Amino acid sequence: MSRIVYVNGKWVAEEEATLSIFDRSALFADSVYEVTTFINGELLDFDAHMERLQSSLVKLDMRYHVDKQALQTIHHDIITKNKLVTGSVYLQISRGAVDRDFHYDNSVKPTLFLFTQTGVQKNLEQMKLFRVITMPEQRWARRDIKTTQLLASSLAKTKARDSGVHDAVYVENGMVTEATSANFHIVDKSGALITRPLDGTLLPGITRARMLLLASGNGVAVEERPFTPQEVYGAAEACISSATNFIAPVVEVDGRMIGDGKMGPVVEKLRALYLEQVPRS
Ligand code: PDD
């Protein structure tokens, strides 16, 4: 079924939506994005997503003013126009369309578009037990910014799928960074949640931040430090976090079973807390 999408202030059928071949998102991946999930029409952690969007824009010196209120209205309108209940909204802002030039020009009007996706419903109903493989980190150095420079992760995720697993987890200098489109965490034998700090090597996930707050507020010890693949193999539990998968168990890494191969108690608790308590608007 054709979706109604939003492009530069206009609502159009997806078949009618167009971008210039000179859009800097196409030529230079000069664009940032957010994916915000909604459940029963309510956006999860919307303010935090808009704050990260603003931060991505600032880090790239992109002049787009994030009007949280106006963007929230557009998010709710796109959900309503597409008659959706649960799903996600993809929002992208690029530095606009202008003849190809490595130098950018901030007097060009940015491009804004949004569309919806519905995969989240399935992630809610049939939670995946993730099986992953590790791969060398191949992305650019600014993984702290949510840009559309996603080719390395597209290649890695497809390679993982072709190897019969769900996803890949990157390793750099002997330490885990994150998964291709989610943050990655482990739980040690004492029940502590171990997660890599925001040291510039990974995306500051909105779900990760919420999970850490919920963990500390509910008796789960949190250790923010880098960890090795060997620690992952010996972990009691492992999980990923992302807007579209929430907090989901990882039960196999590089063919080795994690814990007893099922969702463990800490991940189960954090997932339940997240789904109960994540701010909705
Ligand atoms: N991905 N790390 C990477 C590299 C990501 O692409 C994502 C999100 C995350 C988790 O961030 P958050 O909790 O804010 O969703 C971590 C989105 C969902 C995507 O690209 O579809």
Protein architecture, described:
The chain is globular. It is of the alpha+beta class and 281 residues long. Strands 7, 8, 9, 10, 11, 12, 13, 14 and 15 form a nine-stranded mixed beta sheet that branches. Strands 2-1-6-5-3-4 form a six-stranded antiparallel beta sheet. It has helices spanning 24-28, 46-59, 68-81, 120-125, 151-162, 206-217, 229-233, 265-277, and strands spanning 4-7, 10-13, 31-39, 42-43, 87-94, 111-117, 130-136, 167-172, 175-179, 183-187, 193-195, 222-224, 237-242, 246-253, 256-257. The chain contains eight helices and 15 strands. The longest helix has 14 residues, at 46-59. Helix 6 packs across helix 8 (265-277). It has two domains: 4-121, Aminotransferase class 4, branched-chain amino acid transferase, N-terminal domain (D-amino Acid Aminotransferase, Chain A, domain 1), CATH 3.30.470; 127-277, D-amino Acid Aminotransferase, subunit A, domain 2 (D-amino Acid Aminotransferase, Chain A, domain 2, Alpha-Beta Barrel). Bound molecules: N-(5'-phosphopyridoxyl)-D-alanine (PDD). N-(5'-phosphopyridoxyl)-D-alanine binds next to helix 6 and strand 13.
